[in-house]
């Protein structure tokens, strides 16, 4: 018979936060050590660690009164904090899309030039950074799908626009490489990719 797998730290954090939001009360550590194992299946010896990790991430508030430390977390504050993070994320998505648009316009000018330039290398590096940012924003959105559906839908829409911009720019890079192959007899694709910081597996975003 296989040994039952224990809860991960993240699972314990979620359950502990649920406890605070369900009870909507203020607790000291001893009270949590009695309640959490019974109602949430969190082992007694890990209660303090789990609560402290939530305090460190500003998901649970604490205050020392006399010789005791009290903890609390109410759903309204948690929702407000998540909304603020989502608003910041949307702002970053907007900024990223604007950067992609600006880079795309500059690339339209650069792709008619034959010579390798430092500016081209910088644009290729910027592309890699922007793609990384889009991936990070997309993951954050996926991890927070349980939040405001309308807000998430709006952010996803903005992310799709940014993804389309990346694909257009990726298409332009492929066009430039094709142009170079046709007009430069000594063209070496591997050296070209290395010069511009273009990954070997560069492809369109799905």
From TrEMBL:
Please name the InterPro entries in this protein's record: LZ3wCH, Mnd1, Mnd1_HTH
Similarity annotation? Belongs to the MND1 family.
Localization per record: Nucleus
Q: Where is the Leucine zipper with capping helix domain?
A: 151-204
Gene Ontology biological-process annotations: reciprocal meiotic recombination
| Spans through the membrane | none
Query: What is the name attached to this protein's record?
Result: Meiotic nuclear division protein 1 homolog
Q: Name one GO cellular component term.
A: nucleus
Mnd1 HTH domain boundaries:
16-75
Q: Which UniProt keywords apply?
A: Coiled coil, Nucleus
Give one Pfam hit by family name.
Answer: Mnd1
Coiled-coil region = 79-127
Please provide, alphabetically and separated by semicolons, the GO molecular function terms listed in this UniProt record. double-stranded DNA binding
Task: State the function annotated in the UniProt record.
Answer: Required for proper homologous chromosome pairing and efficient cross-over and intragenic recombination during meiosis.
